[in-house]
Amino acid sequence: MQKSSIPSTMMQVPISLNHFLERAGTYHGKTEIVSRLPDKSLHRHTYADFHRRAKALAEVLVKAGIQPGDRVATLMWNHYAHLECYFGIPAAGAVMHNLNLRLFPHDIAFIVNHAKDRFLLVDDVLLPLLAQFAKDVNFERIIVVPLTGQPVPAPYEDYEKFIGAATGDFHYVELDENAPCGMCYTSGTTGNPKGVVYSHRSTVLHSLVAALPGGISISGGDVVVPVVPMFHANAWGLPFIATFMGAKQVFPGPHLDSESLLDLYQRERVTVTGGVPTIWLSLLQTLRTNPGKYDLVPGMRMLVGGSAAPETLFRGFDEFGLVVGTAWGMTETSPLGTVSALKPWMQALPKDQQYAYRIKQGMAAPLVDIRLVGDEGEVPWDGKSVGEIQVRGPWITGSYHEMPVSEANFTTDGWLRTGDVGTIDPEGFLQLTDRTKDLIKSGGEWISSVDLENNLMGHPAVLEAAVIAVPHPRWAERPLAVVVLRPGHSASADELREHLAKTYAKWQLPDAFEFVKEIPRTSTGKFLKTKLREMYKDWKWEQE
Amino acid sequence: MQKSSIPSTMMQVPISLNHFLERAGTYHGKTEIVSRLPDKSLHRHTYADFHRRAKALAEVLVKAGIQPGDRVATLMWNHYAHLECYFGIPAAGAVMHNLNLRLFPHDIAFIVNHAKDRFLLVDDVLLPLLAQFAKDVNFERIIVVPLTGQPVPAPYEDYEKFIGAATGDFHYVELDENAPCGMCYTSGTTGNPKGVVYSHRSTVLHSLVAALPGGISISGGDVVVPVVPMFHANAWGLPFIATFMGAKQVFPGPHLDSESLLDLYQRERVTVTGGVPTIWLSLLQTLRTNPGKYDLVPGMRMLVGGSAAPETLFRGFDEFGLVVGTAWGMTETSPLGTVSALKPWMQALPKDQQYAYRIKQGMAAPLVDIRLVGDEGEVPWDGKSVGEIQVRGPWITGSYHEMPVSEANFTTDGWLRTGDVGTIDPEGFLQLTDRTKDLIKSGGEWISSVDLENNLMGHPAVLEAAVIAVPHPRWAERPLAVVVLRPGHSASADELREHLAKTYAKWQLPDAFEFVKEIPRTSTGKFLKTKLREMYKDWKWEQE
């Protein structure tokens, strides 16, 4: 009997974004894409329009000399033209490079030059931002999306005229599925930003898995609003996922305030939305102060990511019939690393026990492997042992663009060191505690700042709270809580300390509470702890 | 500005069944797997058991000398041990080769020898079948699953003892995602059976896409019963899909009669099941003759495939609150080619118009490209023009095992010629009309036998109907209807002809009606039209 292996007879067909662009035009042509413009009016068109215009963009980019693998940058809010770039730039064989408009201008310039972006597509309302770094970069062409309807000022080109030159004579570039299709830079708070380059393969696999039931779960019947910016980890992939599934997409443009978002949710019958905890905290506040004002789709799912969200957020939205679901990831992970979805048997648990699982970041997404590593190697999944979260999978970065692979970021056996820290329970649910650098080391013991924050935000008088480590002569570090009170509420440091003392040991409690008007934020709305640490680095403790 | 392309920074991690076997054990250990045994009792265990036993099978196969790519055959009904083979044989690096127990023994022997199967795993209740072809094949080892609990007769080995020898010392084979993991032979009615070899890549992509909302749509909360045999196109992938998603699986074993199935659905609270139209027709009959007897999960989804199903089937189950959904594919397509799911706007249509879409085979699955080709090239998607269905995609076969690629089966530009014929409407919904060889060519015009059959089965007195082409001296071919009447009903040929005449032109009507007790079936329960054509090939028409 012959023992040789045999080849599979399956076709070798690359998986690519182009397939889904064609699919959107072929099967979902009637589905709407709605965008809030800078003047707050709504721009409406369909997947048929999107399909035609994205291919027109691809055609004129190729005719303008864009070669396979060239980088084409976008500097845009969330809207229809940005979606056209999401598919049109890769359809030209090029790499769509989102620029984060909330970075400092000199950081944007660094990123543009590091990525060697050739063209820029930019919103007209962002030209003042471009002006702040234009002299430090050298785009060959700058194409402006006329969102305001005003004439595009020279020497810039009008996006509508640019794609209007297309004749329909376009053929997709034959590609390897590992060819690059997009890139994002991390907004790392230490060192220079680092580039992550996605491939057609990684983006397709990520989108398919994210759409699955029990994941983010998007069907053609959903109406999806990415509040998370399209320049931030591709808005968690939501524009890709929604397009793949043919779901109606609604973009908030530059209007991310609670009133604008709630108006959009109500008007467009939104069923799924995604954003960071701070946006949702503010939205919940608006719902509470305007009882009965908004008529939202019952059961609208609100995906939260970016950092661990307090249980009060889940409970708060439950009162309004809105369902918060959490996930974990980062630019390096495309970004879906884990998603929290109750297992069937958990749905029979009492509600309070359900919250204990719902607030966790959940199970690794299919195709992603996860492990927790401590000083002594892998730590057990017992819900208590803390370790650094390490991941591997087909949409996890294995290096950074044009940087040597460093052991600070990747293990020798090829896993990504995420820098996030957490526990995994026996059910496989990850719970994020902190970034490694957000852990507070007091007298040799670790204190989780995120835990303390979430507990503080459970106090009725507290709107927002950030806890940071501040150097301490005796204990190395001690926690300091920075607190924003709700309008019309008051609470003393002693009250808050007592509130925490119900849950935490005395040595874990913050030694000081600072009451402030607002907490500085990162470009993506997370608490900017580096800034806080800088602000309080010379703090004088009362008892040293 | 440098114009060179850049590499993606994504990890190169192969997608493989092994990941999902580990996932099943890690995250879904408590979920049940239930199997109906030959004595009708229920065997119950969990994904934790499945995970342990499938890996044990992999370990002992490797220790028994199975090399990567070797073929290991199964001859089994649908049950827990077959599921263990689905994952355990590929985990050993080998190729799981399902043998179709409904083929003629000499065909099975041909297939075993052509595939060069080394080992056989076989149900004890199927040993009498094995005896019918054992002398024509040469398995190195034969391992018997003791489903009845009786001692396994010498010289065969007991499956439980075989996997019981595992020590836990097992490491997955490093693999290329294009490595083969399984194979099926087509039960082609012309020529020898042809082998299709699936890869880890094709199986993973197929399963992920099939699980999507709007597709077969399986979540971890579903309870899935594959009635379609696991030896037939991998039970449409249902065991893979359910395992990937962590859904409870329920296997009917050898008991595919309506009463046994309905009992299983009721007992195990089944939410999704899949089978061919003839099985569902019989099940509907049983529901009707036993009103109120069965308490099924409302909205249970009944996937139908294998051939076009009559509208009466959809309407009939709707009366019982059960939802029939249709799909199209074949062994060569893994098998998902198209799935019918109403688009969101279709759900607002009047119910009758919804049926018009629901009975169609639907849109190409994501990652599958489809086209219709007639004598003059591609035909338009107008819902009327008929052409051969051609497909391409990462889970479509591009050749047959150890056969030269023939233009009869594959186009020169690399698409599979399916031999099925249909129309595609402007919404992209495929409607199957016939196998090319089931079309009736009368006086230069095509008549669809499937259309006529479905219309006939809409007549209250008709249980089953098959329409075939019979040679005719004047018209080349004319349609003959072979009809099984419902018990207790009667209808004459003239009545049936009048029923059809409401819908069809006179030249399209069958010229004769033959009333029979049963229609011969293929191994998978489809009407065996080759047999019928053989039976009626010498038919004498009344008016020639």
Oligomer: homodimer
Distance between the termini of chain A: 81 Å
Extract low-pLDDT stretches of chain A: none
Give me the count of strands of chain A: 26
Report the major sheet of chain A. 9 strands, mixed
Q: Name the helicity range of chain A.
A: 25-40%
Category from helices, strands and their pairing of chain A? alpha/beta
Rounded average pLDDT of chain A: 92
Radius of gyration of chain A: 24 Å
Q: Name the chain pair whose interface involves the most residues.
A: A-B, 83 and 82 residues
In what order do the strands lie side by side in the largest sheet of chain A?
2-1-11-10-12-13-14-15-16
Percent of residues of chain A in beta strands? 15-25%
Overall spatial form of chain A: globular
Helix count of chain A equals 15
